[in-house]
Write a structure and sequence with these properties.
The chain is mainly α. Helices cover 67% and strands 3% of the residues. It has two domains: 37 residues, no CATH class; 96 residues, Substrate Binding Domain Of Dnak, Chain:A, Domain 2, CATH 1.20.1270. Strands 1-2 form a two-stranded antiparallel sheet.
């Protein structure tokens, strides 16, 4: 329920940002289309932008992790593949639970997404490094 409220609050915050509007031919003038402002993650100016940039950064780290994971899986024989899969499932559960705990300290604050996605990103990068080390060694 709290997550739903956070999502709704974020949506309200984002929808209330002062963004230019315009109408497009063939649309109803009283239903303007909002222009999406380009997100500058090199210098985010609002907490909402910081939160979104941290989310994007985590998503990039997660993509990298999945690439390395798939690469490592392809080098292993069946019995070791099963062990890696089990380890990865357990690691994901640990990471997510640990990051839930870390963000709980700031529950209700606008910084919660930044804390949560930062934790996910850092943990994911560490796991990626671990898997890369396995790739370097004898699989």
């Amino acid at each position: 329920m709290r997550q739903l409220l956070l999502v709704l609050a974020s949506m309200l915050t984002l929808s209330s940002l002062d963004t230019p509007t315009m109408t497009i031919a063939g649309t109803t003038p009283d239903l303007p289309m909002r222009l999406v402002q380009r997100l500058n993650c090199n210098n985010p100016q609002t907490q909402a932008a910081i939160n979104e940039c941290r989310k994007l950064s985590y998503q990039n780290a997660d993509k990298k992790l999945n690439q390395v994971y798939q690469q490592l899986l392809s080098t292993l024989e069946s019995s070791r593949k099963q062990k890696l899969i089990a380890a990865q499932v357990a690691w994901i559960k640990f990471r997510d639970t640990n990051c839930e705990f870390e963000r709980s300290r700031y529950e209700g604050g606008s910084i919660v997404p930044t804390i949560y996605f930062g934790c996910l990103e850092n943990s994911t990068k560490l796991r990626t490094q671990q898997l890369q080390e396995y790739l370097k060694g004898d699989p």
